[in-house]
Specification:
Layout lengths: L3 H14 L7 H7 L4 H12 L3 H19 L4 H7 L5 H12 L34 E5 L2 E11 L3 H13 L3 H4 L4 E5 L7 E9 L11 E5 L2 E8 L5 H17 L3 E3 L3 E6 L3 E9 L2 H4 L1
Antiparallel strand pairs: 1-6, 2-4, 2-5, 3-4, 3-8, 6-9, 7-9, 8-9
Helix pairs in contact: 1-2, 2-3, 5-6
Length: about 280
């Protein structure tokens, strides 16, 4: 892999070549040389929408083009672009285009279009991003977890925090950590844990669990300013600026951590790049 941009470009090309087939998110991520967990996280930060949304919008764009330019049946278009029934296709099509598939064939109908993503060289960066590389021993946390979809996690996790802090659990777990963990490596969902350090002498309350965070190397990024904007801004810079330009380290482990203490930090697990193997 010559560069991070090459990996993203290969992933986008793979998506475009397989829009009429079942697309495996793990295969897309392999084209970018990262895990499906990280690929979806990075894609969402860089593009402002999820991988699933991009694939869905591209399919609906192509479906409209076929309906307008050919005599293909609506049911055949629906099946071609991954819909099990004309009804589900019509619902998605109408939501995206504002008209039904049949109406799309009428003259002068306005339709929406999402063009394929392209990688362009732009002069960005040059901004200061504070970080430090730290070795951390294995530690155990205790908290409450919930599984989230990659598609809706940005909206649902804040609600999870609010629900937790207003419940009895909020009196037990203060929420020193917010931890994303890809358990099944299915690329579509992950566990999010609101947690504190676990003390072995304490019992584990009902409804809570412990998780072991392995020892390793972490890139630690402090977040200064008002939350959640400060956290979001640093998160964007990590994936759009720091990671693509980092030549000494690569991602390691399918998890990352938000730490809420005297300061707020984002922890990303990393490992050194073997330059001999990469050559």
């Amino acid at each position: 892999m010559n560069s991070w941009n090459d990996g993203i470009r290969n992933a986008i090309f793979y998506i475009e070549e397989h829009l009429t087939e079942d697309i495996d998110i793990n295969e897309i991520a392999r084209k970018a040389s990262v895990s499906s967990f990280y690929f979806q996280k990075i894609f969402s930060v860089l593009c402002g929408f999820t991988v699933g949304e991009y694939i869905r919008n591209r399919r609906l764009t192509l479906a409209a083009q076929e309906l307008c330019s050919t005599d293909i049946k609506v049911i055949d278009v629906a099946l071609k672009y991954g819909y099990d029934s004309p009804d589900s296709f019509a619902k998605a099509f109408t939501k995206f285009h504002g008209v039904t598939p049949s109406q799309a064939r009428e003259k002068d109908r306005r339709l929406n279009s999402v063009a394929p993503l392209k990688i362009k060289l732009t002069l960005e960066g040059g901004t200061m991003l504070e970080y430090k590389i730290m070795e951390k021993e294995q530690f155990t946390v205790m908290g409450v977890s919930r599984r989230f979809s990659m598609e809706t996690s940005y909206q649902e996790i804040p609600r999870f925090w609010k629900e937790h802090m207003n419940s009895e659990n909020g009196k037990i777990i203060c929420g020193m950590y917010g931890i994303c963990i890809d358990i099944d490596n299915d690329g579509r969902s992950f566990d999010y844990l609101i947690a504190d350090y676990y003390r072995p002498e304490s019992e584990i309350p009902e409804g809570m669990e412990t998780r072991v965070i392995p020892a390793g190397t972490w890139a630690v990024f402090p977040c200064h300013g008002t939350l959640p904007k400060a956290l979001q801004d640093v998160n964007t810079k990590i994936w759009s600026e720091w990671l693509p330009s980092c030549k000494a380290y690569k991602l390691a482990g399918n998890y990352n951590i938000e730490m809420y203490g005297e300061s707020v930090e984002i922890w990303i697990p990393i490992e050194k790049i073997d330059n001999q193997k990469s050559q």
